[in-house]
Amino acid sequence: MKKLLVVAAAVSAMFAQAQTFPSKPISIVVPFSAGGPTDRVARDLAEALRKPLGGVSILIDNVAGAGSSIGTNKVAKAAPDGYTLLVAHIGMSTMPALYRNLPFKVESDFEYLGMINDVPMTLIGRPTLPAKNYKELVTWIGQNKGKINLGNAGLGAASHLCGLMFQTALQTDMTTVPYKGTAPAMTDLMGGQIDLMCDQTTNTTQQIEGKKVIAYAVTTAKPLTTPVLKDLPTLQSAGLKDFEVTIWHGLYAPKGTPAEVTAKINAALKVALKDPEFVKKQEALGAVVVSDKRIEPAEHKKFVAAEIAKWGPVIKAAGVYAD
Ligand code: ASP
Fold it and tell me: Residue 16, exposed/middle/buried by CB under 10 A (0-12, 13-18, 19+)?
């Protein structure tokens, strides 16, 4: 009887908390380093979410490492009260195939709150590379077999997936250099410590424009329309048949977060994704803000499941994994 009363008290406290949500600052975990593309999306989103969530403070918590699995795990294990959220990308669908002992289950340890955007990637090189376009790059790669360094943000990162596909398509092996995010990798690329990297346009557009890196190609099926990127060839048109990778981001809460709270966050997300400032910032960097049914949690979940089914075999065929 006593136990029942304790459970009843806990349930009613949870209801009361859900009704007053949000009444204290919310933390959004970014599973990569500060200053990179995932961080940028999360910070812009945090700003846009603030008003529809009643002016509450939203803090960014960068929990980087192991290709986003550390930060993602932190959210999987956090209190399911809506005060710890996660902004994560396509890694949610590649990690299950890449990690043999992933400490969380993508499909059952999270509440799906809706998707945020789609972001193309670019293949970029250090500013001192002798190859000035994609054709010259392929020749240079052929002449430098065994000597090329490719930066990425660890197993499970978008840069990892894209780099893997690129090496497979060219049937060549490069030395991969993992970072905690592509912000530090970009610093090394600009400084010439590494040779090549694939990264989201949200991190590369300004560096391409400033000629701090050389851009070779985009990873989408169609050319982009962003002024700085519109003349770049797609990898498909450059000869890599079927090469296509677009990065997407979504918002998550720990499994068990009350429905009333997740509904409030999803409603705020719908407002944030229409915020003209947010849309403008994203579009300027080549990202497309989600405006379709993928903002609905059920569709978000369905989409991630389809992505897991799509990328699993690609990764397994490449024979890459971590214990
Ligand atoms: N762009 C990175 C990636 O390769 C992640 C990041 O630093 O945001 O997935």
Answer: exposed
| Atom 6 of ligand 1, residue of closest alpha carbon | 181
| Three-state SS at 79 | coil
31-69 as b/e: b if 16+ CB within 10 A: bbbbbbbbbbbbbbbbebbbebbeebebeebbbbbbbbb
- Distance (Å) from CA 68 to ligand 1 centroid: 9
Residue 141 burial (CB count, 10 A)? 19
CA 120 / ligand 1 centre spacing (Å): 12
Dihedral angle sign, alpha carbons of residues 128, 132, 138, 140: negative
Tell the residue nearest (CA) to atom 2 of ligand 1: 182
- Which of the residues in the chain have pLDDT under 70? 1-16, 323
pLDDT of residue 323: 67
* Angle subtended at Cα 295 by Cα 291 and Cα 301, rounded to the nearest 5 degrees: 140
CA–CA gap between residue 273 and residue 288 (Å, rounded)? 10
* pLDDT for 314: 86
Question: Domains (ranges, CATH) in the chain?
Answer: 2-119+247-318 (3.40.190.150), 121-218 (3.40.190.10)
Cα of 182 from ligand 1 centre, angstroms: 5
Question: At 265, is the secondary structure helix, strand, or coil?
Answer: helix
Residue-wise pLDDT tens digits, 179-215: 999 999 999 999 999 999 999 999 999 999 999 999 9
pLDDT digits (tens, 9 = 90+) for 101-144: 999 999 999 999 999 999 999 999 999 999 999 999 999 999 99
